[in-house]
Structures are given as structure tokens and as C-alpha cells.
Known about the structure:
The complex is a heterodimer. Chain A is 29% helix and 27% strand. In chain A, a hairpin with a 5-residue loop joins strand 4 (96-101) and strand 5 (107-112). Chain A is elongated and about 75 Å long. By secondary structure, chain A is an alpha+beta fold. In chain A, strands 1-2-8-4-5 form a five-stranded antiparallel beta sheet. Chain A has a four-stranded mixed beta sheet with strand order 7-6-3-9, with no helix packed on it. Chain B is built from five helices and eleven strands; from the N terminus they run H-H-H-E-E-H-E-E-E-E-E-E-E-H-E-E. In chain B, the strands form two sheets. Chain B has a six-stranded antiparallel beta sheet. In chain B, strands 8-7-4-10-11 form a five-stranded mixed beta sheet, with no helix packed on it. In chain B, helix 2 (14-42) packs antiparallel against helix 3 (45-81) and helix 3 packs across helix 4.
Amino acid sequence: MSRFGWGMVTLLSAVCAGIAAHLYVLNAYPAKRMREAVARIGQDGKRHNFLVNAPPVTPASRGVVRPSPDLIYSVCIYDLSGGDVEIEMSPQADYHSLSLYDLKTNNFFVINDRETGDRPYVLRLTRAKIKGEKAGSGETVLVPPTPVGLALIRRLAATPAMLETAQKVRLKDRCEPVEAQK
Amino acid sequence: MILELIGRIPDWKYGQIFKAAALFLLAVGFEIFEIRRTFRSEGDTCLTANASFTVVRFVLLALAVAAGLVAGGFSAFRMIDASASRMTLDVGGWAGDLSVGSPSSSPYVRASISERALMALSREETIYFFRDRDADGNPFREACSYEISGNPLPARWWSVTLYADDDFLAENPDKAHSVSASTAELDSRGKWRARIAPAPAESGAWLSTRNARSFSLVVRLYNPEPEALRTPERLKLPVVQQLTCAGASR
Lengths: 182, 250
């Protein structure tokens, strides 16, 4: 190959490597951040399918960037490797919502109190192919895009009175394997 | 020893790029060593000359690819850091993007959100707007005082929160990190206002900038009105005006 040919090969290789690295970082970075959050909250697998009621947000809250000080959060790392998981959100008068995230940071499901009304809302996560069906018990059944992900319950707590109510109500929330209820 | 040194590069952001490039160059180095050893074992002077030529080209190629890896990775992280410029909406200086949290969001928006607003909600539930500059385009500074004002926002509930330059709440005991639909007081014209400063004003709402350094503001609209979703560019988001800075009043 001529010197010019080698030069072109070298230049093209550098450009291709640059584009590949750029796209790789862009696509891998969100998943990396999410996996880090899942590992931290789920204590590297030791605390999966368990609802953690995080304390009210203060300047000492350093787990996830930009938390809202007007909300309190309960978080659960769902893991369907051992079977179905059920999440329950208890009702209260002020805003509250349940949102689910896959390992690519997609918020693939969210429901709030306007939709759930004044009854406890139960969501069953499964890997079985029954997406969208409603079970006879009234619970919603959902197949998440990834078998491991994150569930987050937000409750409005912008005033001391709201905070007190939300902290009491969320004690009834749960996230646990279906097997554990038997 | 070399692997140990490479392993010491911090496993975070830019460090990963240099680690990848260093490992690549190390692998190439071993290949070159093998090529030279193979040619030398042949013992032919002509072959040895060819080997030197091949090695030079191989080294140049490897360096070019390593430089490409570093440049590509570095540019990706720079674009992630410049998150505001990745957003598709600019509403009076507030940057936003309705694809946040959605599978349809661009890789740039997704990466930016994972860096600065992980676990953001999709637009039907919440719309977010971000800004780190005042109305004149100057970066927010802890030493300055500002006034933020506006009308109640078209959502079931809204808030404006101040974050320090590390994207967490500013480390101060002031308990003045946000103003919201629950706490904002409206005047006779239906407007709310708050002072953004290291110390509170004599009266009115306050967002404390103590220890916030070069801070940013985030507007959240929970359960936005349909109109806000249809035409977000027409939203009347709060206005931020600088009042004083470094002791000089304007």
C-alpha cells in the first residue's frame, strides 16, 4: 500500500474510533448511572424487592442528584429473577405517584392518585406474557422491559403537616415477592 | 506494573476514556513486540527493515486510533455536561425537553438527564425546566442576589428548587431550598416572588444560596395542564432578575 493509502487508512481509523467512542459513551453512560443507583439502593442485591422509605430530603441527601425537598421518596429495586413482585401504594389526599424505571433510565410506567383514587393501588410485576391484563383481584399486572429495575413512590410533603401525613401513610406501602405473602 | 498504573486511573467519566486508550495502546505495544520478535527470529536483514517500516506504521495507526478514542469519548462527556444545550425547548431562558424519561428521547438528552436528573418522570406526569443563568445571561453566583417572580404555573402542583453546583441541595441549615404552589404567597395581581440570596429579605419568600456556589434552578410542573403539554413554548415561566452582585447594586 502506498504512503497516501496508509495515511488515509490511519485517518479513517481515527475518525471511526472517535465516532464509535462517542456513541458508546452516550449510550452506555445512562445505563451505567442507573446500574450504580440500583447497586447502591439495592445494596448490591442484598436489598432487592424491599421498599426503602428514604428520610425527608435535606442537604445531606446525596444518593440521587436533584431530589425535590418538597417530596418524600420510597424506593424499591424490583428483581423478578425469583418470581413475581407486588408493589402497593397506599392512598392519601395529597399528590402521590408510583413510577417505574428500567435499567436504561426509561420511565416506562407511572400512575398517580388521580388515577388510583382513594383505594390502595397494587401493581404486580411479572415476566409472564400477560401484559396489560387485569387480575381478578383488581391488581394491575405489568411486564417490565428489564427484569431488574427501580420503583419509586413520591409523596407530596411541602409543608410539615403534609410531611407528617405522608410519613404515616407510606408505612402501609410495600414492595415484596409474591411468594413472601403466602 | 503498567496494568496497575492504568488501574489507578479514576474509573469515572474522563478517566474511563484514558483507561480505554491506555489499554488499547498497551495491547498494540505487545503486538509490536511480537512482530519484532518474529522478524528478528527470521534473521533476514531485508525482513528486519520491512519489520521496522511495519512497526512505524503500526505505531502511527495505533496512536491515531487512541487519539480518536480519546477525542470521541471526551466530546461525548463534554456534550453531556453541557446539558442545557441538548434540550429542545428554550422558554424565556429555561431549558426543557418533553422527551425526558421517554424511550424516544435522544441519546444526548438521555445522557444529560442521567447525569443531572436521574429518575425524572415522563412528561404526562411532570415537565422539568432548568436554568443556570439570569435574565442577562450571566451564570448564577452565590455572592449575588436575585429576584424570581411569576404567576402560578399551569399544573396541579409546581415548584422551583435551587441546587448547588454539585446538583444537590446547598449545604446550609436555612431550610429555604424551594418555593412551591404550597408555599408561594400571591400578591394582589396574582403574582408570587421570592428573593434568591445568601440571606433572607425582611419579608417574603426566600431561596438560600449559601454554599450553593454557581447554582442552578429547576422548575417542576406536576400533572401539567393539557395546554402546557401542547404548547410548552408558550409557558410563562418565572423571570429571574439580578439585583445586586459583589456589593454593587444595579
